Every structure is written in structure tokens, then in C-alpha cells.
Amino acid sequence: MYKTAVWGIDEAGSMHENTNSTDQTEGQPTPAEAIAENPTTDPTAPVRFDTKVVVILRDDLQPWQELNVTAFLMSGIATSDEDLVGENYRDADGNDYLPMLRQPVMVMTADADKLRSIRTKAMGRGLATAIYTEELFSTGHDAANRAAVAGVPAEELNLVGVALRGAKNGVDRVVKGARMHP
User: Is the pLDDT higher at 21 or at 64?
Assistant: First the structure.
């Protein structure tokens, strides 16, 4: 059997690699055992989130652009808080898959003026904010993306998407007037 890295979080909340294990399932509770031990992991139990994640896309994008912008913006949101991403997924055959966000993501649309307003309000409230500008469609790598944003004053950014994460009521106030994505 090959050795696979297993990542865990210690009591202090620090992520570490467990290099002592070669069998991923050894000592791991089954899903039913995990629910019995900790009822909050019951997948049928209602979950209430105190934060909200929203992606707002400019309403004139092509479908491929909407998908591209959403993917990039969510990569920023996913890295904004270490507790935002859950545990790895595992199928019944023992195959591991990458973790995903613990909470739902709302996708909305707005015109260019509303996107600028949302960015301004979000920054004013200190919300975790990711942006995607139209110029990023023509850049080819991360450094070029950052340079394209760095060369433009905040109020002149040609926004095609904004993603936010923060307290529900604050996010709701900031995105007021945006529409749910069709």
C-alpha cells in the first residue's frame, strides 16, 4: 500500500500532516459513528450560518465569463478564513476528494454602476471582498492579474464581478438592489 499524506488540525487549531499513517481508514469512524458521536454532523440537521457568501456578476457577461469570474472570485473567498472550508470528502471506496466551502454561495447579477457601489460599500464595512476586472480576461497569469488591478484607482476599476463574505445583515445591506442570477 502506498503512503498518502493525511492532514489534520491539532487542539491548538494548527494544520499538520500526519505522516505516521499508511491506511487512511484506520481509526476513522464511519459516517454513522461520526453522527452518533457528534450530532451536529448530521447531514439532515438544519444549519444556520452567521455569515453569508455572495458573488455578484455584471449582468452583460457571456456564460463562459460568468463561470470563469465565479471560479476565480470563489478561490479568493475560500482563502479568506481558515474555518470557511470543511473537511475532505470521502466516498464509500475510500477515495479522498478536496474539501469545499461549508456554506451555500448566492450568485447574483447587477449592472456596472451597482457593482461599483457594492465594492465601495463592502470596503467601507470591512467585508472580505474579492474583485475581478474586465482586464483580467486578457491576462495570462497571477502576476499580470495583480498588475492589471494595481494600475487602476479603486473608483475606476472596470468590475465584472465582486464576491463578499461577512455577517449576513451587512452583506444583505451591501448587495441590496442586485438580482438573483437567472
Answer: 64
* Average pLDDT over every residue of 88-102: 95
Closest CA to 162 of 95, 117, 96, 102: 117
pLDDT for residue 69 is more than 90:
yes
